[in-house]
Specification:
Layout: H1 3-13, H2 20-37, H3 68-83, H4 87-111
Length: about 120
């Protein structure tokens, strides 16, 4: 899915006054963390260039179908709720995001071997 597709879903589910640029920034931050903390730590991820923040929203997100929609939609709605100081709504959405992210992470970890650069103690 693309950044713009996720933003369109969120805007239908959660009407808000945040600009697309802010939402693109939130998704860029999330995907930067996903790349650094998950993808780059497992075998099979081949990318020589550093992660570049999304610019126009036409970029593909890192997490694939069927996990992508739940992760990104709940994350964006949580960020909107945080920006609006809606604590209960934020807590609800971030819990749903964490569950969806954990499900994807478990799948990814089961299907991609972690890199073991240092598998023993060095003295």
């Amino acid at each position: 899915m693309t950044v713009n597709e996720i933003i369109a879903i969120v805007d239908l589910q959660e009407p808000n006054s945040y600009k697309a640029e802010e939402k693109i920034g939130w998704l860029s931050s999330l995907d930067g963390k996903i790349r650094h903390e998950v993808l780059e730590t497992h075998e099979g991820f081949e990318a020589e260039d550093p992660f570049e923040p999304y610019t126009d929203g036409s970029e593909d997100l890192l997490v694939p179908f069927p996990y992508c929609e739940d992760i990104y939609v709940h994350y964006l709605i949580a960020m909107i709720a945080a920006g609006n100081a809606e604590t209960a709504r934020y807590n609800q959405q971030i819990a749903l995001y964490n569950a969806a992210y954990g499900e994807w992470w478990n799948w990814y970890n089961a299907n991609h071997m972690p890199l073991h650069n240092k598998t023993r103690f060095e003295f």
